[in-house]
Amino acid sequence: MTMDGGHAEAGGSEEAAPRGGQGRFLGRRSFLLGSAATLGALGLGGCVTSDGAMLAEAAKVYGPMPDERFPIPAVDIRKVDPKYYRRTVRYETKEAPGTIVVDPRNYYVYRIEDDGSATRYGANVGRDGFLWSGDAYVGRKSEWATWTPPKEMIRRQPEAAKYARGMPGGLDNPLGARTLHLYQNGAYTLYTIYASSDPESIGSGITSGCVGLLSQDMIHLYARTPVKTKVVVLPA
Questions:
Q1: How far apart are CA 62 and CA 217, in angstroms?
Q2: What pLDDT is attached to residue 79?
C-alpha cells in the first residue's frame, strides 16, 4: 500500500491545525484544506418515526461531555447530514469482530460486531491525492495527544512553524480528544483515526490521509478498540 508521509510526523498527527475564535488560533479547516451508545431509535433497519425523533436521539448521542479533561461541547447536529449519525447496521464481512473498516468512498468507519452487524460512524477522509488503501493495525492510542506539524507542512504553510515543537492537547488541538495511531510491520505509518470537532467536515475529503470522527464518536470507538486491532482501509 502507498503511504504519504507529508501529512504527519511520528509521535505527531494528522495534518491539520488548531481552530478557535478569530485572532486566537488559525482555523482547523484552513490547515486541512491548505495542506457508549448507538442510535437505538434508528435500529438495524433505520426505522424512525419522524425527523424529530431522529434529531432528538442524535442530540443525546452528540451532547456535551463535561467530565472530559477538556470538557467537550455538544455537536451542532444541524451541520451533520443525518446519514452520518452513529448507528448500528447490517454488515456482511469476513473480518473478525472488533476490526475497524474505513470506507473512504462513502465517508464511513465501521467497527465490526459479532452478530453480522457493525457500528457505523460518519467520517472525514483524505482529499484527492492523499487517499490510500490497505491493511494496518492500531499500534498505540493517545488521549488528548500532542500535535506536531511535519516539516513538509511547515514548508507549505509557514504559519504552522509556531507549533514545530508540538502543541499540547486541548480543544483546539487538531487531534482532539482521542487518537488511534496506525502501524504496519512495527512502523508508524503517520496516519491516524482522530477526533474532529468540526461537524461540517464529516462527509468530506479534506485531510492528508487521516480519518476523522466526531469527538463523541471517536471516544465511543476508542473505548472499544485495543492496541493491535486490525484496520482495513478500502479503496476509494
A1: 8
A2: 97
